[in-house]
Design goal:
The chain starts with 6 loop residues before the first helix and ends with a helix. Helix 5 links the parallel strand 3 and strand 4. Helix 12 packs antiparallel against helix 16 and helix 15 packs antiparallel against helix 16. It is elongated, with a radius of gyration of 26 Å. Helices cover 54% and strands 9% of the residues. The protein is built from 17 helices and seven strands. By secondary structure, the protein is α/β, with parallel strands linked by helices. Strands 2-3-4-1-5 form a five-stranded parallel sheet, with helices on one face. A two-stranded parallel sheet has the order 6-7.
Length: 360
Amino acid sequence: MEQFIVSARKYRPQTFKDVVGQQAITNTLINAIENNHLAQALLFTGPRGVGKTTCARILARKINQEGYDDPNEDFAFNVFELDAASNNSVDDIRNLIDQVRIPPQTGKYKVYIIDEVHMLSQAAFNAFLKTLEEPPRHAIFILATTEKHKIIPTILSRCQIFDFKRITINDAKEHLKLVAQSQGISFEEDALQIIAQKADGAMRDALSIFDRVVSYCGNNLTRQAVAENLNVLDFEYYLRVTDLIITNDIPGLLISYNDILAKGFDGQHFVMGLATHFRNLLVCKNPQTLSLLDVSDENKNLFYVQSKKVDQTILVEGINIANECDLKYKTSQNQRLLVELCLMQLATLTHPEKKKISHN
């Protein structure tokens, strides 16, 4: 059996052009290399899975390629990766400093990529300070971290800092499209939208989820199958529940919630999703905020139509009630009753009698 390579590794970008969602940083790095303006100590910071180590590797390769004959040379012997999570002592840093003094055998630079640099001990940071401030001409340090606030200010002041941002849902979805097409997998737009939302801004997570879903669904990714596999409540549930709230159908709401629980969904997850749904309906109310709606283009109309049926004040009040329920959920002795009470309160918001009272 042929060995399976996970998509996060198989589709790891090899050039700055391939990096997803970090154009500002990649453009800055390309310009810095072209104009000979690259600092010798760089700090890449940002959430997990957004391309920090990938950009560090591409940068290490690119600065050595200049004036080199073989375009396929990867300069593996010039790149040293140190995982500070497991090599965080003073001795580890001293070994690294001893290596730094030796110039490279091929190419111009030796590049030291120190991952999870915030895990270094205080003593290790202090041992590293002098070298970081005045490294040899052939050495470049790239520090990567998810927790910038844990790095001491004396290190930060010696580095050029690049803040990597979370990958937007749209960027992640577009990249997943390319991956699916290259593997000959057919897909529904909504299926990739769910994966991109579940990844929560991390491209690596999106590709890992994509692999898992493909193992489950085969070569055809449908919205229903993806939602089922990822245990995600489909937006259709929320459209249906909101229609019941609009018509004050309390028995229907209780039955719908019972069905949701029977399918194995968590009550708090449902309430948070309902608050998000109300928020989505709220942003449909105004053309200026329509761009904030994270739904595929083909389904925007469903949200738009439903938003016309509900008053803005009711949506704001609905978000407030759902949010209150979410805050009380963990400490509640009867969680099911808490959510049912929340649904009943939401249903009474649109009741004709309540509207009469509020007008009087």
